[in-house]
Amino acid sequence: MPQTTKVLILGAGFAGIHVAMKLERLFHGDSNVEITLVSRDNFVLFTPMLHEVAASDLDMTAIVNPVRKMLRRTQFIASDVESINLEKKQVTVSHGLCRHKHAIDYDHLVLALGSVTNFFGLEGLEARALTMKSLEDATKLRSRMLAHLEEADPPCSEVPRASLLTLVVAGGGFAGVETVGGMYDFMMHAIRSYPNLKPEMVRMVLVHPGKYLLPELGEQLGRYTQEKLAKRGIEVRNGVRVTSISDEGVVLSDGSFISTMFVVWTAGTSPSPQVSCLPCQKHGGRVITQPTFELEEWPGVWALGDCASVPDGKGGFHPPTAQHALRQAQTLGGNIAAAIKGTQKKEFSFSTIGQLATIGRRVGVARIFGFQFSGFLAWWMWRTVYLSKLPHWEKRVHVALGWTFDLLFSKDTVQYVSFRTPGSIMPLADSVSVSDRVDTRHGVLTGAEKI
């Protein structure tokens, strides 16, 4: 009787789920290959549209797909990864209501655990700032904006309105720009329902350490983005970074102080802690792979997506973006099949097609095949491209209907999450524990991921 080969995939982001789907196609009907996928959540999050949930443009169910619906023969386990033992070829996971632990053996291990938010050890940041890395983050951000409006509206409020209605976003990359644009649109719409508040009371600040926004797109589009945001009333602070956060506000690197109780951190990510501690070569915390995605020191261990540094053949590494992760998954799945069958493995080679971002109010920027686009056309291209990338036609219909309803009807301003805590009027961030903030589900970056 042939021996069963066990393939274990950690992480159900774009990278992990597509490796599993590729293996299912290659080993369809082959019972001697056992595929197991482990992920914290039982859904795949379409991260490029995360900011639209925060801005109430889309319902959160529109951008998630159930893992079990996407896979046919892969065994799925909704678990947290506790530890990875490469020597024993064993992964320890915890799951269930009681969080019981057990070990899973493997012959081939795929690391697709993605990244977590990096707070760089800045004082007060992790305890007080909101993030934009998960579906939970987006829903909390939306509810937090409404909570501040509710607190600021009554004349009897003991909290200064200026502090409540000053919103600071740190990070001028794709995630930060799209988040601040969506937040501004939502606040300008929602504030109409509060008779004691006026739009001019809202102060939106985007803090970016670089000379211009969206450095991935180049200076011309970056400055165009800043100009559009500034015309809408969003204050952009270039060349400075957040150095510390307190209950009173934010201190910037130029010594200035912004009085605020609302900070969103989008200025850094780092690989999953489970990957960072592995005994193998790393680059910036990411495991260094061969061009075939296999770890040189550990045959049978593969890595891709946001937790891996994959050589690009030019002396550097492929960027950890969605478009690369999707194509890496196809090549890696084929290479695992080649390793099992004893055939030739392929080296990964791919060049970025393009990058797109929305900046709110039906305006976008894009660079595709070296050509630059901006304004309504770029925004339309963003929506068209990502609508086509959504898994399954029913989700595409769901999103298309959501966008249509957003044009026809007012935004929903129901506050789903409460931030009231004993002895505190409005904490800068809720009481989520540090462990709850660790998001090892996604194999790609959040925000405006690339085509």
Structural notes for this entry:
The longest helix is centred in the C-terminal third of the chain and has 20 residues, at 322-341. It is built from 13 helices and 27 strands. It is globular, with a radius of gyration of 22 Å. It has helices at residues 14-26, 50-54, 67-70, 125-128, 135-152, 161-164, 174-190, 219-232, 273-276, 322-341, 376-389, 393-408, 434-437; strands spanning 5-10, 33-39, 43-45, 64-66, 75-78, 80-85, 90-95, 100-105, 108-111, 115-117, 130-131, 166-170, 203-208, 234-238, 242-245, 249-252, 257-259, 262-265, 269-271, 282-283, 286-288, 294-295, 298-303, 308-309, 354-358, 364-368, 371-375. Residues 422-426 and 429-451 have low confidence and may be disordered. Helix 1 (14-26) packs parallel to helix 10 and helix 5 (135-152) runs parallel beside helix 7. It folds into two domains: 5-116 and 270-341, FAD/NAD(P)-binding domain; 119-268 and 353-437, FAD/NAD(P)-binding domain, CATH 3.50.50. Helix 8 links the parallel strand 13 and strand 14 (234-238). Helices cover 30% and strands 25% of the residues. It has 451 residues and is α/β, with parallel strands linked by helices. Belongs to the NADH dehydrogenase family. It catalyses: a quinone + NADH + H(+) = a quinol + NAD(+).
